[in-house]
Design brief:
The protein contains 9 helices and 16 strands. The chain has a 4-stranded mixed sheet with strand order 3-2-1-16. It has 342 residues and is of the alpha/beta class. The longest helix is centred in the N-terminal third of the chain and has 18 residues. The protein is globular. It has one domain: L-arginine/glycine Amidinotransferase, Chain A (5-stranded Propeller), CATH 3.75.10.10. The two termini are 31 Å apart.
């Protein structure tokens, strides 16, 4: 990327910061999945597109939704999307807007910009010719400044509370497939600057076991000042690296004085494959609602619903069957990106 590393980077002194997800949104951005190298099974791609449409249509009942797709894909997308979902001609490969979409920052005085962490297909694990350009193209269409961070990575790899605190797994950032030659301290400095934050909590995570190198947003989410919701198995498998890393992250959060509530993973689910992501934590907060996954376990689905209602009082809790996203390694939060109201 010509001119990617540039000395002009966003920092806290600029006044820009990423607001909490639960703050008011102007709209939600999403991406239409089309790349057949990524999705070779046509029938499963149809299911995935319908799932993305279901999420977009649901969110659009509460706030505007903009679906990004190449112009030649609009007719197909429109056949599944409600009339209230807007389509923009910005070409896409895949659906993960949390990772390849724009990270919006505000300055508290009506200013809005895009803090740019360069997406590179999770360390070039996936084709990304279109997706790696999405944040820049959205910024250009909106007429917003693109503020380089000097980092490669994904917003799904860092959780932020909008109040100055970040949380991340080292495996998603201190990794030669994203940021070769950069120390953890330097990556932390750049992440804090990119989000307008002043404090960061690290946990080790898991390297090279999934495409994201264990994104934090499928495990732990800030729900307010000093509060975290964590998705953990009731009976951790000591031989499962993700279970071990999750428990370590939980301990780290408690040690840092945060109030941590645990929601159990589903005991029973419709999809039993080993690498299926069954995360209640991978939800999305929009204006007036929380959009979350249900997995077909009536007991744990209800526990998750109750926890979300407690953490987000006054919002409608809507739970959807998004199993195709779990089979692809993600969830609702991974597929959405908020544009804050200013």
């Amino acid at each position: 990327m010509t001119g990617f590393f540039t000395p002009k980077m966003v920092d806290a002194s600029s006044g820009f910061f990423v607001p909490p997800e639960e703050a008011s949104h102007q709209r939600t951005f999403m991406q239409w999945p089309v790349n057949r190298k990524v999705h070779p099974d046509r029938a499963f791609l149809d299911l995935t597109q319908q799932t993305i449409a279901d999420i977009a249509n649901t969110i659009s009942e509460f706030e505007p939704v903009t679906m990004l797709a190449a112009a030649e894909d609009h007719a197909q997308a429109r056949s599944k999307l409600s009339a209230s979902v807007e389509l923009w001609d910005i070409p896409t490969d895949d659906l993960w807007c949390r990772d390849s979409g724009p990270i919006f920052v505000v300055d508290g005085a009506g200013g809005l910009a895009v803090s740019h962490i360069q997406f590179n297909g999770w360390g070039e694990k996936q084709v990304n010719a279109r997706d790696s350009q999405i944040a820049r193209r959205v910024a250009e269409r909106l007429g917003l400044r693109l503020l380089p961070s000097g980092l490669r990575g994904e917003a799904g790899g860092v959780e932020q509370d909008g109040r100055g605190l970040l949380l991340a797994h080292e495996s998603s950032w201190v990794n030669d497939n994203r940021n070769p030659g950069l120390s953890r301290d330097e990556i932390e400095r750049r992440l804090l600057a990119a989000y307008g934050a002043d404090r960061m909590i690290w946990s080790r995570g898991v390297w090279d076991e999934d495409i994201t190198d264990y994104h934090i947003d499928s495990l732990a989410r800030f729900t307010g000042a000093g509060r975290v919701l964590v998705n953990l198995p009731d009976e951790p498998d000591p031989d499962d690296p993700f279970h071990s890393a999750a428990l370590e992250t939980y301990d780290t959060l408690v040690e840092n004085g945060l109030q941590v509530e645990v929601v159990p993973e589903p005991y029973f689910r419709r999809v039993e494959s080993f690498d299926f992501v069954a995360s209640y934590a991978n939800y999305y907060v929009c204006n007036g609602a929380v959009i979350a996954a249900e997995f077909g376990d009536s007991e744990t689905d209800q526990i998750a619903r109750n926890a979300l209602a407690q953490h987000y009082p006054g919002r409608e809790i809507i739970m959807l069957n998004v199993d195709p996203l779990g089979e692809l390694g993600g969830g609702i939060h991974c597929a959405t990106q908020q544009m804050p109201a200013v």
